Structure of protein-tyrosine-phosphatase:
Amino acid sequence: MPVKILMVCLGNICRSPLAEGILASKLPKHKFTVDSAGTGTWHIGHPPDERSVAVAKKNKISISHQKGRHFSSTDFDAYDYIYVMDNANYSDVITLAKTDLHKEKVQLILNELFPKENVDVPDPYFGLPNGFEIVYNMLDEVCDVIARKLLAKHQ
Ligand code: 4NP
C-alpha cells in the first residue's frame, strides 16, 4: 500500500496543485501517492491556474493534467498526511475532523520548515505575477524537508 499525501488549499487551482506536483517529483511513485483538493467548490473539475502551470513547467514539472476537487471528510481515512497551505484552510479542514487521529493528520505545510510558527503560504490568486514564483520556491523548499522525512520514515 502506498503512503498517501493530500495537499489542500482554498481553490485547488494555485497552491495545492503546485505542492502536489513538487512533492510527487521528489518521491518514488511506487511508494507514495500525492493528491490535492480544495476547501472551496468553485473550481471542481478545472485544470490548475495557467500561472501555476507555467511556473511548474519552468521548473520541469507538469501539473496541467490535474483536476480540481473538493476536500471531503472521507479524505481523513483515505490519506496518511494532509498538508494545508494556510490557517484558514486549517480551520476549514479541522472542523470536519471527527477523531483525534483525523486531526493529527492535518498540518500547516510551512510548520515543517518553521515549526509551530503557523506561517501561511500566501494565496497568489489575486496577487502580483511574481507571487507564483515566490509560492513555488516556498513549496519547493518545504517539500524537500517533507520528502526527506517521509523517505526516512517509510523505508
Ligand atoms: P488557491 O487560490 O487556494 O491557491 O487555489 C485560489 C484560487 C481561486 C480562488 C481562491 C483562491 N477563488 O476564489 O476562486
In short: The two ends are 13 Å apart (CA to CA). The longest strand covers residues 3-9. The chain has one domain: 3-154. The chain has a mean pLDDT of 98.
